[in-house]
Each structure stands twice: as C-alpha cells, then as structure tokens.
Write a structure and sequence with these properties.
- With 102 residues, this protein is mainly alpha-helical.
- It contains five helices and no strands.
- Helix 1 runs antiparallel to helix 5 and helix 4 runs antiparallel to helix 5.
- The longest helix has 28 residues.
- It is globular.
Length: 102
C-alpha cells in the first residue's frame, strides 16, 4: 500500500472512531439517545450552521461519489455514501479517497 493510501485509511478510521466516541459519550451522559444528539445539533445558531455546513459537504461528496462511480464502474466506492451519512464526512471523504486511489 502506498503512503498516501495509508494516510487516507488512517484518516477514515480516525474519522469514524473519534467523532463516534464523542457522540456516544454525549448520548450516555444525557440519556437522550440519538434523538437527543440530533436535537443538540440545532441548539443554537453556531451548531445549526455547522450542521448545515456538514450536511451540504456530505451531499456534495455524495454527488461526486456517484458521478465518479458510474464513470469508473468502481461500485465498491459507493461504500463511502453510507459511511458519510451514518458516521460523517470525516470518515466518508477519506474512505472514498482510499477506495478511489486503488
């Protein structure tokens, strides 16, 4: 594996584990579960802005992944879409770059 692919994979793993640690920590501390976590994303203008920023980035990444996947016929690259929406852009983007760099 090339050094850049190793970096992409490491970032994808970090982007999956680190945010999830904080999400799970919040849900355990508050006892509100996923609905409480989502409510917290809209608690003030700052968090709402960040939520929309990441949502728009996730949509842009999804459009790119779909366009590139159909052009390259590399269907495994579609794994980046659920990674993006179930974990976050911090996992989905480096995962896509890792898969795309094969």
């Amino acid at each position: 594996m090339t050094p850049i692919r190793t970096i992409y994979l490491a970032l994808a793993i970090w982007g999956a584990v680190h945010p999830m640690y904080w999400f799970v920590t919040y849900m355990v501390e508050t006892g509100t579960g996923l609905s409480g976590l989502i409510d917290a994303w809209y608690v003030n203008a700052s968090t709402t802005g960040l939520t929309w920023d990441l949502t728009i980035a996730a949509i842009a990444l999804t459009v790119w992944v779909i366009a590139e996947t159909f052009r390259r016929k590399a269907w495994v690259n579609l794994l980046a879409i659920p990674a993006t929406f179930c974990i976050g852009v911090s996992c989905g983007l480096p995962l896509y770059l890792f898969l795309r760099s094969r």
